[in-house]
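Worked example

This section walks through a single chain of length 239. The input is the sequence exactly as stored; nothing has been trimmed or padded.
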Amino acid sequence: MSAQPNISSVAFLIADPARAAMLMTLIDGCALPAGELARAAGVTAQTASAHLAKLLNGGLLSCEQQGRHRYYRLMDGQVAEAIERLAAICSATTVRRRPLNRAAQDLRFARCCYDHLAGQLGVAVTQALQEKKFIAAGMDKQYALSAAGNLWFTAIGVDIAALKPTRHGLARQCLDWTERTHHLAGPLGVQLLSALCAAGWLRRIKSSRAIQVTPKGWAGLKTQLGIDENTLAVETTGT
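Given that input, the structure is written out below as tokens.
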């Protein structure tokens, strides 16, 4: 009998509501202390420590110590991708939803998905890139970069030549767990988010995965990709 991956042990770790809340809190790639993760999960510090120890032993988290403080983060992008995919499955099976509060609305609109742009804005950007034929959906859940796309990303501030493809390629399709369609991920998606933040188009929100679009960003998105603030707002309200 051939060896099989121990899926059940990983599933057990993610299945606990408190541990799942901690993992979702870390989905943007940040590193947080146990106290903040305890508050996010709604558990005591002692209970949080026990959960974090299990997640560390299970290979889902890594820990970095600075002085007396310990900071926890997801082990790698594969863990983040697995959590996002599970979240997408849960969204598909949800029949009745409570009205989203403001924080949840902000996350749905634009957020970090580990290290790239997600949410309604992330999907809109990806669709615009496809419409302009800068990228095209290809085989194995990847996007192919066109010559015109190479020029556009370079002009935006992405050093294409410096990007190193992963085993999933240079640009991959990531299923957005709130929008139920794909957004751009992979090294190209990571550097696009960094470039848009560096250009002052997007702004990361402290202590949140939410991302804000600046006035300069809305102007740039409309000029470069045809993404209009008012049109996107209407589509957002209607979903």
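What to look for: Residues 100-238 form one domain.
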